[in-house]
Amino acid sequence: MNALGDIEIRIEGRVGAQALTPALVDIEEIREVLSQVSGLLFPSEKRSQRPLISYEIVEGSVRHKFRTVMQSVIGFGAVLTQIYSQGQIDFLHERSAVAIESLQHLAVEKDYVVTISAHEGLLKIDRTTHYLRNAKLWVDAEFYLYGELTNAGGKSNPNIHLDTEEFGTLRIATDKDYLRGADKNLLYKKFGLRVTGKQNMQTFEMDRNSLTFVDLFDYDREFSESYLDGLMKKAAPAWEGINDADVWLEEIRGGAHA
Asked: How would you classify residue 134: left for phi > 0, otherwise alpha for psi between -120 and 50, otherwise beta?
């Protein structure tokens, strides 16, 4: 059996005149903390791939305690130390960065002190810290995603869920009129999607929370040389004035993709 270790997110503050305790924490606030933990610990793994994470909430202000395999706890502790030493989160995987940002927003909004500890690593977040991603590193981009469409709808914020091999399930904002006018049943079929969103210029990661639907198309998993040739011919006029395509792409990207 794998050795286990603990990760703790301790939240200190007040609710009115009373010191914060588990009895004073709304379920939505607990849900928000819980929803970020898998992104912190296992940002690139699906639920079926990552180890079990157990949970309990205990007194001592509010202490969210998580237990998982010790190897992951040690690795996460090292990440916390790196965040503290660098004073920024731009180097993190997108899901981990979003989780830290969520806790930073909570600290500012509620005037809480949030302390994350794991193994020998510790990170304190409060209204004086600024653990937010650098907006200048994130640019508008277009992506092509492939997978099975597992959900579609939503009353106020319509979206579709696409289950992909590379990213897991992605939630993509979608126009309600498109879903209403779809001429066929979209669910549980494989599609390709063209979407817009934000991409990190340094890591080339996609911001999963920024995705907006553009187009949907059927796709064949088998390689089609004729289809590729057709796309190249269609794009050729746009490249006529470029002498060295590789150099041009590197300049647009701001440097070679490491």
From this structure: beta
